[in-house]
Specification:
The complex is a heterodimer of chains A (about 120) and B (about 375). Helices cover about 20% and strands about 35% of the residues of chain A. Chain A is of the alpha+beta class and about 120 residues long. Chain A has a single domain, classed as RNA polymerase II/Efflux pump adaptor protein, barrel-sandwich hybrid domain (OB fold (Dihydrolipoamide Acetyltransferase, E2P)). Chain B folds into 2 domains: about 280 residues, Probable tRNA modification gtpase trme, domain 1 (Gyrase A, domain 2); about 90 residues, Elongation Factor Tu (Ef-tu), domain 3 (Beta Barrel), CATH 2.40.30.110. Chain B is built from 8 helices and 19 strands. Chains A and B meet through strand 4 of A and helix 2 of B.
């Protein structure tokens, strides 16, 4: 699993990469009340805003961590945004992206580096 | 920026695992372990304890209550003189332009007037009172007392366990009541739309009283995050967001707070800053009004969201001043200002969120019914 400085996690699953936000991010956000997911089939470029996540405190953007195509989104999250607080690392993934350049993953931190990053 | 001030309950907040944030120059708890959503729901279901010691507590003394009240009426468009002993009222400091300098609570405590003002405005409020009232009326800043709010349907049962006398009080009553061995200045009021109390307690006993309450099953500590969503659902203004020095009380829908006796045809008409504009607004109507707003989708519309009359084109006809998620309402809630022509309950408008216009409906406030003990 890899981690971005935007507090996303990336897990490779066959030829797609599953993306969610970390425990740390979910804790910092507080209770999540609204999620807007991207459209399936959408072509995205790295660092493009693809999701909106709003907590009781504020709105945040989720960026596409890689170039590629959004092949699947976790639609049930829209009706149960609180799952992002309950299980951010597994059940509350946001979208799956089919990367055009899997090597872009190399830029991201491993778990040890991320732990150090968040202090 | 200077060092943050701490309230007498700072150590308790930290021990309770609060997340502390700077607010109006104080290091304050924004949430505890439960988190904003659960704290909010707990307060509406049971009882919540809030540290509001950052607010300004002031005592005005003079020759008699009548003398103090008459002097104070030169600063606020409220009936201070007619306020009964042991009663509290909501008030506004107005400016010469008829705008609002701060909102406040004032209580007739027999030989003195007790005033509670917002933290962010307290220095200006104290200066304003001193300039206008001294030397005939003295302005005494109370620095040796904390202020604790206990709010929610179980607040009476919880506080009455410490002293049953609190159960005798009704909404907006004030009394001196012994709690945790200290003479506390208690009012039956709050900022959540729930029944409850606000308790001015000597600094030295504040933590003991807070702990005694928190030890009870009904009571959880509540941070500023839930305080904001509770007051928003209750339709209560936050000074600086929903009312400010350019807002007239009439635009803000606070005409109920100006008693008849101070209105244009009243026995003590005017005599407060901005009376001309406020009476003008009353006689001629206002161009914009504060309304409740319910976004029809799931996306919250936060402060600053522009409001439009149509789904496309046209200039903004208003703006959200406070908005977020209402845990009890179970959806996004907001308040803001719209043109008078668009202010009727049920009017369908649009709020622009991230470049998209989303439907929002003008709604009656409070968005969650109040639960006061009248």
């Amino acid at each position: 699993m890899k981690f971005t400085e935007e507090h996303e996690w990336l897990r490779v699953e066959g030829d797609v990469v599953v993306v969610g936000i970390t425990d740390h991010a979910s804790e910092q956000l507080g209770d999540v009340v609204f999620i807007e997911l991207p459209e399936e089939g959408m072509e995205v470029t790295k660092d493009e805003e693809v999701c909106v996540i709003e907590s009781v405190k504020a709105a945040s953007d989720i960026l596409a961590p890689l170039d590629g195509e959004i092949v699947e989104v976790n639609s049930p999250l829209v009706d149960e945004p609180g799952k992002v607080n309950d299980d951010p690392m597994v059940e509350a993934w946001f979208f799956k992206i089919k990367p055009s350049e899997l090597s872009q993953m190399d830029d991201y931190m491993d778990e040890a580096a991320y732990k150090k990053f968040i202090g | 920026m200077g060092e943050l001030s701490r309230t007498p309950l700072f150590d308790l907040h930290v021990a309770l695992g609060a997340k502390m944030v700077p607010f109006a120059g104080y290091d304050m708890p924004v949430q505890y372990a439960l988190g904003v959503m659960k704290e909010h729901l707990h307060c509406r279901a049971m009882a919540g304890l809030f540290d509001v010691s950052h607010m300004g507590q002031v005592i005005l003394r003079g020759e008699s209550y009548e003398a103090i009240a008459k002097a104070f009426e030169t600063l606020v468009p409220m009936d201070v003189l007619g306020l009964g002993e042991g009663r509290q009222r909501y008030g506004l400091f107005t400016n010469n332009g008829g705008g609002i300098e701060d909102d406040l609570m004032f209580a007739n405590r027999g030989d003195h007037l007790f005033v509670v003002v917002n933290a962010a405005c307290k220095d200006a409020d104290i200066a304003r009172m001193k300039a206008a009232l001294e030397p005939d009326v003295s302005v005494e800043v109370i620095a040796d007392r904390a202020l604790i709010a206990l709010q929610g349907p179980a607040a009476e049962a919880a506080l009455a366990r410490i002293n049953p006398a609190v159960a005798e009080m009704t909404f907006m009553d004030v009394a001196t009541i012994e709690l945790a061995g200290a003479d506390c200045w208690v009012s039956r009021s709050g900022y959540t739309g729930e029944d409850g109390y606000e308790i001015s307690v000597p600094n030295a006993q504040a933590e003991a009283l807070a702990k005694a309450l928190l030890d009870m099953d009904e009571v959880e500590p509540i941070g500023l995050g839930a305080r904001d969503s509770l007051r928003l659902e209750a339709g209560l203004c936050l000074y600086g967001n929903d009312i400010d020095d350019g807002t007239s009380p009439i635009e803000a829908g606070l005409i109920w707070a100006i008693q008849k006796v101070r209105c244009a045809d009243g026995a003590r008409a005017g005599g407060f800053p901005g009376a001309d504009r406020i009476f003008g607004d009353l006689a001629e109507g206002v161009a914009r009004k504060r309304v409740g707003l319910v976004p029809q989708g799931r996306a919250p519309m936060r402060g600053g969201t522009q409001i439009f009359a149509a789904g496309e084109g046209g200039d903004p006809i208003g703006e959200v001043t406070s908005g977020g998620f209402g845990p009890t309402f179970e959806g996004p809630v907001a308040m803001g200002y719209v043109g008078a022509a668009q202010a009727a309950v049920g009017t369908e408008l649009f709020g622009e969120v991230r470049g998209k216009r989303m439907p929002v409906t003008v709604a009656k406030m409070p968005l969650v019914p109040a639960n006061f003990k009248r």
